[in-house]
Fold:
Amino acid sequence: MSRPSPEIRPGPGGIPGAVPHHAREDVPYALRIAAAWAWRVGLVVVVSGLLVWLLSYVSLLIIPLMVAALLSALLSPVVRFLNKAKVPRGLAVAITILGFLGLIGGALSLVGRQLVVGFGALWDQVLQGVVQIQTWLTEGPLHLTTAQLNDYITEGLRQLQNNSSAIFSSAMTVGSTAGHLLTGMLLTIFTLIFFLLDGGRIWAFLVRLLPRKARMAADGAGRRGWTSMVQYIRVQMFVAFIDALGIGAGAAIIGVPLALPLGVLVFLGSFIPIVGALVTGFIAVLLALVANGWINALIMLAIVLGVQQLEGHVLQPLIMGKAVSLHPLAVVLAVAGGSMVAGIPGALFSVPVLAMLNAAVRYIAARAWEADPALLSPRPGRTGPRNRAASAAATQPDPDTTSALRPAGPDDAAGAQERRGTNS
Structure:
């Protein structure tokens, strides 16, 4: 006689389960929910880690694409302004990119000249510092003789000779990195040209790869995420300028050499929020110590800490927090986690990626595309003013198609027809 099969009852969410009812009662409800969440979260973590591991093998492609996206967010208003001034789109993109490259080249040339002049004047002070160190080693508490110092120097040179192969390997690695850097720069410029020239159609093509039911949500989430990243890069430019102005001007006032290159270094480092300006600021403190002594270095340290307090308590919470809706703690954790996973590129891109994800997830969670007039298609049989305006917005080119995630342009008519057919 066959045994009766156990009763199968619907599990959480209405999905039938194969576990007998009495066995389910033996497992507490909280534990069942925790287990369900655990394997799902674990699967997401594993897939995310696998994705990051795979992307690390194509970092030479991913990093230039992300840099080009940030630069397109920065330069798109210039292209838009030139378009409004009746400049053809291709010419506007060329003027914008050439002007940007000329500005960067001029700034680097000026900084290079300042470095050559400054280090020439600083070299004598460095030699005096070396002599003072030697004097302290011989006359200080260590009482080292000249013969002992020579023995230590000779031993150091011998170690360098013994490790010449490792040094040569490191030099070859630096040469390979320089080659990758040049390739990445060329790829960034090439990608930036097409992001500024045809970014809307690129995004529209990517959206049309998705299932029809997901296109409106993905379109709106992409727009919202792109807007958040544009706001981030603009606010970060302002924050970096304030950091560079404060530290560079303070260094110039108290007589620290190379104040202008320090300001440029702080400006570049400030694109890594909170951490970048602090690290570059301590370079200024070290330079003040070498050039002018302890008192000047302490004053420079006070200036750096004051600028950091201004950024941490005023600029980041009030300006950056409102622009991208991220708490300062989230910014710090994103920078730390990004640097642990991907080094400097991870620290640089972690906050804008987090800002984009935050805006996109909020948009999808609120189902905001259902009430977005720019994405709604008119229903059949309704020709009111609101629907005619929505139809025109869906089928006519958008004048703001200058960014990589701004899906508008002549191809939008086909997308609107597809959405109209879906809604019907």
User: Anything to note?
Assistant: Residues 330 and 351 are 9 Å apart (CA to CA).
